[in-house]
């Protein structure tokens, strides 16, 4: 399943909290695609994902928006 979350208008810590809810729903091979623009979220979310062992990629969509693709591997 592919989960989508546009958090461009949300401010930290809301994107992290909502992302954690989505990650808890995910099963193996599910993907979460989210867009973030808040500076705190852009710094905190990749750090969180790395610490928790998630496989993810990120790309810059514009000067202020980053898209993350997170894959559930277990």
UniProtKB/TrEMBL annotation:
Residues annotated as signal peptide: none
Domain UPF0033 per the UniProt entry, residue ranges: 5-71
InterPro entries assigned: TusA-like, TusA-like_sf
SUPFAM superfamilies named among the record's database cross-references: SirA-like
Organism superkingdom: Bacteria
Protein name: UPF0033 domain-containing protein
Native source organism of the sequence: Thalassotalea profundi
Phylogenetic classification of the source organism: Bacteria, Pseudomonadati, Pseudomonadota, Gammaproteobacteria, Alteromonadales
């Amino acid at each position: 399943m592919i989960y989508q979350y546009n958090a461009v208008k949300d401010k930290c810590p809301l994107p992290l909290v909502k992302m954690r809810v989505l990650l808890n729903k995910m099963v193996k091979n599910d993907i979460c695609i989210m867009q973030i623009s808040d500076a705190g979220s852009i710094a905190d979310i990749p750090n969180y994902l790395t610490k928790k062992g998630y496989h993810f990629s990120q790309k810059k969509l514009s000067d202020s928006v980053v898209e993350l693709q997170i894959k559930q591997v277990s």
